[in-house]
Amino acid sequence: MWRQQGMPLDERYVPYLQMAGLYHLARLNDRWYRLDEPLVSAFFERWRPETHTFHMPFGECTITLQDVAYQLGLAVDGRYVSGCLTDFHMYIEGGRPAWETFGECPEGDDEETVRRFARAYIMMLLGTQLFGDKSGNRIHIRWLLYVARLEEMGSYS
């Protein structure tokens, strides 16, 4: 098991992560990937928001959608994510981040429980690695609808 945001990546989640097209993203943790903080800081200093480019000594460059897809292993072709979740009150219990509620999936639990924990893990990935905010522990409710339909999630780009 590998931890991300205090929630372990259990091997039992792998089929669900693969179904959702997020297994490669889940593997980007301390075991396989180390963040080069000085490099990130250097890029941050060279970022120009007015042109959405990095100003380098050899010229300007930017990150493309294909670069992100390659690095994170995410699909860029497929159904697009759009819309708004209006019946979110059906999905909320307590307003706490899922990884605070779920933690580790107990050994010997049934498949439906493992599936619930895998969904919580996917919400944690979405909220921390793809669509994070300054809080580091919140995710927009719109993603819940996609995670609820886990079988269809892998068809989105």
UniProtKB/TrEMBL annotation:
InterPro entries to which the protein is assigned, alphabetical: AminoTfrase-like_pln_mobile, MAIN-like
Pfam families: PMD
Domain Aminotransferase-like plant mobile: 21-156
PANTHER family: AMINOTRANSFERASE-LIKE PLANT MOBILE DOMAIN-CONTAINING PROTEIN, PROTEIN MAIN-LIKE 2
Gene Ontology terms: biological process: meristem maintenance
Protein name: Protein MAIN-LIKE 2-like
Signal sequence, start to end: none
Organism this protein belongs to: Arachis duranensis
Lineage: superkingdom: Eukaryota
